Structure formats: structure tokens, C-alpha cells
Amino acid sequence: MSFGSEPSKKALAQLTPVLTKRWLSPDAWKLSVYERLDGYTALRKALDVAPDDLIQLIKDSGLRGRGGAGFPTGMKWGFIPQNDGKDHYLVVNADEGEPGTCKDLPLMMSDPHSLVEGIIIGSYAIRANYAVIYVRGEAVHAARRLRSAVREAYARGYLGRNILGSKFSLNLVVHSGAGAYICGEETALLDSLEGYRGQPRLRPPFPATHGLYAGPTVVNNVETICSVPYIVLGGAAWWKTMGTEKSPGPKIYSISGRVNNPGQYECSLGTTLRELIDLAGGMQDSHRLKFWTPGGSSTPMLTDEHLDVPLDFEAMMAAGTMLGTTAVQVFSNADDVVYATYRWIEFYHHESCGKCTPCREGTYWMSHTLRRILSGAGTPADLDTLLDNSDNLLGRSFCALGDGAASPVQSSIKYFKQDYLDYISGRKRPYFTAGELVGAHR
Amino acid sequence: MTVTFTDETRARAREIMARYPAGRERSALLPMLHLVQGQQGYVSPEGMAFCADMLGLTRAQVAAVATFYTMYKRRPTGNWLVSVCTNTMCGVLGGDRAFAALTELLGVGHDETTGDGTITLEHAECLAACDYAPVMTVNYEFFDRIDAERAVEVVSQLRAGERPIPTRGPRLCTLKEVSAQLAGWADDRPGAVGEGLPGEPTVAGNRLAERYGVSVPGFDPTTPIGRRDDKGQGPGNTIPATIKPPASDGKPAGDRPPAAKEAP
After folding, report:
1. ω into residue A207 within 30 of 0, thus cis?
2. Interchain proximity B256–A178, CB inside 8 Å
């Protein structure tokens, strides 16, 4: 790693190494090392208080879901009906696959026990005796560490019957997926986990009452659950010293693309792109920021006008986009925004589960229209067609995958219409000439 | 049923089913499909019939699931599944060129296997390693920051019968061995779980924090947990006014374990 330019004091002050802190410690994935670094102390503390007190603690902390939607975690836990005589479930969504997103896999690689500990605490709070980590199939490397961690935790009495003499019992299963982006959608994940095609369910009813096996279920993102032990130890007020009033806490920002030091930067929620680029060693030589995603390809792209907008839930919403997974993909003047959009739409087309018509057909037709434009055969009416397609996707598809597919199209036309017109008018040489496209699904 | 699926396979399948709550054995279907793929290198009609038989499903029900997920291969695969990410970020940074180079080298396209049956090539969607872009994987282990030359080098080594070392992650194992892990079994190769250090992008933020002495002040693990009835006004909801928002307090980030306490 080159430190090239010195980051400004202001940018450095945004760093909040909390969840990522153990990543520098050698072998922190081992139980013995994790325990030496305060591991499982939060669990002992949590088991000493009533489950409802823990739910209140998470509510007080203002923790919001880290998987993209930002739903208040304590409220989600509070929705689980109590004393209903049913089995409750905690399911961790570790199906990381949103383009640009790369925070949960390193977290599970370097610190798998923090996830296990968070799961035990969360399960105790919502009175679940069965929990599952649904880990993306391709993430064999993370699953390997998770399985090792779970095995160690059972052997040490942190999982299984009567955990640490508390009379609380929990079984935890690591379940590998099989390659389907849609399974990151929580109800599709549940269907997949039940052994079906991963297709989203109609809501309501919500997973809180009818989730896994139609029982009360909390589905949380990896980073959300990993935050729990720190809140249990440090308290809600300490947690709120980081981030903004409505988006408290630290957040792992993943910067990729045309910066000198791409990587994971855990910062206070509300850090700006300017500060993140500063931390990442600045833009690469001869690259000027052109467009970027605040949280994966499903969040509408922004431009160099948005360098100083805080990356938190509210400010991103106000800027017409979403915080998403804080997967900040940085593209420069060397990158073709029309091709980028096309490639994302190919992705959504491939990953659309086919359950609902707007998404199945819309992603198909948008990819064809974009391909036509890139082949130099587009017409000005193609832009209207694309926007019309997007309108029929956004808010009209069964789940957020369709909304996500509309994002790059709408935002790229909004900010970079001229780039499209350059292809359409022939001012720019067609991207596809030989009629062949690397990576296209035919 | 063919001889491929022995009593041992059946025992393993039952072991998978036992992980899920009683009456919810269908949850075992995805891992069981990984299991049969591990036996044959792909999900064959017999493999699907085996799953149907074990779980009391129809073959059509199993086929509906098996065809939905990209990791289940419908045709025999090679020992080495080479996946090049060509999603937007990896693609523009060189993944597209790497995929084209491999297509030329191997003479096969997406989801095709070389004539000698050793290598299956595919382009992959985002592999969640954009900070290492462009990436490719061999049997799902990462080769980071590749270019066309490096991709050709890795695949040439595979063809020569060598096992190139992934950038972060353990020694390569065959696709069949990986499938067993996907079905839920631990990697029992000695030391494999610990192999592979995180790359610099993973710890980039930590390195800065360490270098400039940034940590989060005010963390007291003995902070009491309030009662629900306190409604957010109990202990732990107030901290001394002396605690400022996070900034440098001169302490390094990262917990260095005491030297020589444990062999790495």
C-alpha cells in the first residue's frame, strides 16, 4: 500500500475502527485469539440481562440495518411476537453479491467469531433457538472460516444446550447458497433456505410473523449482527458518538475503482466521498472522477457534484439515491458510462428470478436497447424506451431487484444524456463492432 | 440408482437432513445438490433423482430448483472451474480482456469445458471482491488484480498439472472437494482454514488508523445495560461530556497479541 499523499486531518478524523479492529490481529479467526481480544465477553454480559432489555438497548443505539435498506434493527427485533408458543428464527443474510459490495466477506474471513457472538446475543434477545447463516455459495473461503468458528463455538459451550449455564440453547447452521443474487432479497433467501427456487414472497405478511417455516423470523445483514456485541459492551450512548443523529454508528465503506488505494475503510456514518477518496490515497493519476455509486449498482449513480454529500441514509435519500451497502465504486473520465450501465443491466437480466413480468421482461428489453445503442444503431427514441422501461420497473416489480435495475438507467440518462447521444449520433465510435461481446449472456 | 450413490452418500445425505428442524428436511436440498455435484462433477439426472428419493420430492421439483442456481452445472465440468468476473468494475479494469484472452487460449467460451475435460471456463457476476478488481477465481479461490497475462499464466499452470497459489486463501482443491465443503463439511486439510492472509485493500483503513493513531474513544466494556422500563434514559445512555466524537487519541488501532503466546 502506498501512502502517496497524506490524508487530511478531517478525513482521518472520520475513521472509526470498531468492527474492523481485529482484522489486523493475526489469526483473529481462531477462538483462542478472539477470546484474548475480548471475544465472547459481550455474550456473558448479555446473558445476564433480560432479552427485552437487549432489544431496548439496540433500539436506543439507533442501529440501522447494514444490508442496504437501513431499517432500525431494534424495531425489527421488537416485531417478533413473544410468548406465542412458536419457534423463532434468526437468519443472517451473508449472500453478499450487490455489484461493488465487498464488506461482509472480509468481515467473516478475518473475524468470524464476532458474527457468531452477535448471532447468539440476537437469538437470545428474540428468543430464537435456531439460527442460520445463509452464506453466498461462491464465498467458499468465508464459509470455511465460519464453519471452523461454529465448530469451535460448539466445543466451547457457546452454542448448543444451556449456553454458559444460562438455560438458553441455540443451534447454528452455516448454509451455503448456490449462486443466485436474488437470494440476497430476504424473502427469496427464506424460500431458498427452505429448499425452493429463490424467489421473493409477497409481503405482507412480513418475516417477523411469517418467515422461515412460516415462523417469526428476523433476517439481518452480517455487518448489522457484528455490530451487536460492540453495542452490548460499549453502550448505546457510546455507539451514538459515531455517525449522525439519524444514522448512528460506524460503517464499513468499500471503495473500489479509480483510486490509489481501494479497500475497506470503516468510518463514521456520514463521511463524504471527498473524504473517502482522500483516505484512499486520492484519484489515480490522470483520472478525474466522473460517476460513482454510493452503495452498489442498485443505488442511482452520482457525479462530481456530490463529492460533499454525507454518505448516510438521509442525505443520500435527499440526493435522489440511497446509501445501500456503502459500496462506493469510483469511475473516471476513462470509463464509459453507457457501457457501465449496459453491463449492470446485463447483470440484472441474468439475475432476475423471472417471477414477475416487469422485471423479467424489463431487464431483457433494457439490455437489448442498450446493446443497440452501444452498437451504433440506436435512435433518440431508444432513450425514451429505456426511461419508459424503467418507469415500468420502478415500484412495479415484485421486489427491489427490479427497482435496482431501473437505477443505473435512470440516473445515467439523467446525468450523462450526452454520452448516450454521442453513440446515437455517431459522434462516438460504436463500442461493439464485431458483434461479439465478452461476458454477455446469450 | 447407479453405483455412484453408495450407502455412504446416503448416510451423508441423511447427515445434511439432520441439520434442519424435524419436518423441515427439504431445507437440505441445496446442500444435497452440492453433495451429488461433488460425486459426479455436475448435477446429473441421477443426482437429481437421488435427491428426490431422499427427500420424498418429485424429480420435477428437484429439477426446478437445480436449474435455478448457476453453481449447479448441468454438464460434466473439469477439475478446475475458472471464473473471471466481468461485472462492471472488474470488466472495465481488465476482466473483459482477461476473459477474452482465456477464451482464445482454451478455445472455449462461457460455461464450456476444454476438450481434455480439465478446465471449465465461465464469466462470473460480481464476486464481492471489488477492492481487488479485476479478480478471477479457480474453484472459488481468488486470484486478485489480474490482467490478461496473469490469467493466462494461472490457467497455463493448471493445464500443466500445477496448482497455482491463490492470492488469499488456501491451496486449491478440486471442484469435487469444494462441493463437499459447500454441502456443509469442514475443510479438513491440515492448516487449510488458516491459509491465506488478508490483502492490503482489506486492511487499508486499519493501516491508516494504525499509522495516524486513530481510535474510537469512550469505549467502556463495563457500561451497564439499562432496563427496558428505563425507556432509553437508563445507564449506558449517557456518557460523560468529556467524550468527544471520534478522532485521534494517539492510541494505535488493532490489537497486537502478546508475542510468543501462541504460534501462528
Report:
1. no
2. no
Residue A435 has pLDDT above 70, yes or no: no
Radius of gyration of chain A (CA): 22
Q: Which amino acid is at A231?
A: I
Instruction: State phi, psi for A245 to the nearest 5 degrees.
Output: -60, -45
The number of residues in chain A equals 442
List pLDDT tens digits, range A389-402. 999 999 999 999 99
Between B72, B103, B253, which is nearest A24 by CB? B253
Q: What is the C-alpha separation between A368 and A360, in angstroms, rounded?
A: 13
Confidence of residue B4 (pLDDT cuts 50, 70, 90): confident
Residue B138: enclosing H or E segment and its boundaries?
strand B136-138
Determine the residue type at B206. N
Read off the pLDDT of residues B142-180 as tens digits, 9 standing for 90 and up: 999 999 999 999 999 999 999 999 999 899 998 888 999
Q: Is the torsion defined by CA of A257, A259, A262, A267 positive or negative? A: negative
Mutate: best of B17, B81, B88, partner A, most A CBs <10 A:
B88
The conformation of residue B95, written as its DSSP 8-state character, comes to I
For residue A229, the chain B residues in CB contact (below 8 A) are none
Distance from CA of B143 to the nearest CA of A (A): 12
Nearest Cα of chain B lies from the Cα of A317 at a distance, in angstroms, of: 24
